[in-house]
Design brief:
Blueprint (H helix, E strand, L loop, with lengths): L1 E5 L3 H9 L4 E4 L17 H12 L4 E6 L8 H14 L3 E4 L2 H10 L4 E4 L8 H11 L3 E3 L6 H10 L3 E9 L10 H6 L3 H4 L8 E6 L2 E6 L2 E6 L15 E3 L2 E3 L7 E3 L4 H7 L3 E4 L6 H20 L4 H12 L7 E2 L9
Parallel strand pairs: 1-2, 1-14, 2-3, 3-4, 4-5, 5-6, 6-7, 7-14, 13-15
Antiparallel strand pairs: 7-13, 8-9, 9-10, 11-12
């Protein structure tokens, strides 16, 4: 099982490699990847340095070009594919069918992974992408229960990668435009959810208020941990209650599911967090490296699992973790 770790910048990439990542994934400094934030991502020089650093240490490098191209800027997305191919990355992570076709036609020998943004959740969908575009791997959306993942793993024509740890989104991967209603920018179109330029923090008598383009998203009381104001994780008044009506600010952690995922034949587990610090990447990579290595030889003892879970909890949103959709019973 491969450990795939985030690289939002060169220091984070190096930390992930040094702590034992089998692969790292990164994006360019434009709208072609779903994490277009100021200070993140790679220019060509940094990307080349990162690819060399990782591959010289036996770590693979994947390039995420996983937003949906704007019709008037198609060449920006094909240019990113050309750039990644010239850098010698090990695989492209793509979502858009037109771009998958471009990559398959132009660089047939370069591996293509279907991004989580592609939102393929059935054998038929995976087979379509494999037959049409020759994808080698698919990253599964975080909307499937563990039973559904297991069933899909038995039938999949391609390798499967699942999310192991990190922030959750609204579970409509590849289809989320919530942010654009307030900011005119969304992950799937411009690679940015809740862009920093639209975020405002304000101390008030009622507490610390977080606003997105002027709209109140959340209000935090004294001592309450304040999260980044994304629309899906805001607190809203619904009837007589004010609560996280769409999604709670909590992180996914599948540490307990690791032996089961291995038994299913899942090819890779992915750590979310290209927007996180190098220190975060180092700590999460370190824990998951140990957990995967241990699971290969024997079951981790309860005390060890508790220690790892405690370390990950400190790095989670709201210091809380969840199994997300993996544990849901409804279908």
């Amino acid at each position: 099982m491969e450990l795939v770790c985030p690289a939002g910048n060169l220091p984070a990439l190096k930390k992930a490699v040094d702590e034992g990542a089998d692969a790292v994934y990164f994006g360019f400094q434009n709208a072609t990847n779903a994490r277009q934030f100021i200070g993140l991502n790679f220019n060509d020089k940094r990307a080349r340095e990162g690819v060399d650093y990782a591959q010289s240490r036996g770590c693979r490098v994947f390039c995420a070009i996983n937003t949906y191209p704007q019709p008037s800027r198609w060449s920006e997305w094909t240019g990113a594919v050309d750039q990644a191919a010239a850098l010698g990355v090990d695989a492209l992570i793509l979502a858009d069918m037109g771009l998958l076709d471009y990559a398959a036609q132009t660089y047939p020998d370069l591996s293509r992974h279907l991004s989580v943004q592609g939102s393929a959740t059935s054998r038929a969908a995976l087979t379509f992408y494999q037959q049409q575009f020759g994808i080698k791997r698919a990253v599964l959306p975080r909307v499937l229960s563990i039973a559904q993942v297991e069933d899909l793993a038995k039938q999949s024509p391609v390798e499967l990668e699942v999310f192991a740890f990190g922030s959750l989104c609204i579970m409509a991967e590849g289809r989320c435009y919530l942010s654009s209603y307030l900011t005119d920018e969304s992950p799937n179109t411009r690679g940015a959810c809740s862009p920093a330029k639209a975020v405002r923090w304000q101390e008030t008598d009622a507490g610390l208020e977080a606003r997105l383009n002027g709209v109140l998203i959340d209000r935090f009381l004294d001592g309450e941990k304040a999260g980044y104001p994304t629309l899906c994780k805001g607190r809203f008044a619904v009837g007589d209650e004010t609560y996280h009506a769409l999604e709670e600010p909590v992180s996914l952690s599948t540490l307990d599911l690791l032996p089961k995922l291995q038994a299913m034949g899942i090819a890779a587990v992915k750590i979310e967090g290209r927007q996180r610090s190098p220190a975060y990447v180092a700590q999460v990579t370190q824990v998951w490296r140990q957990a995967i290595d241990k699971a290969r030889t024997s079951a981790a003892d309860p005390a060890q699992l508790q220690r790892w879970a405690g370390q990950l909890s400190q790095l989670s949103e709201g210091s809380l973790t969840t199994l997300g959709a993996y544990h849901r019973k409804w279908k």
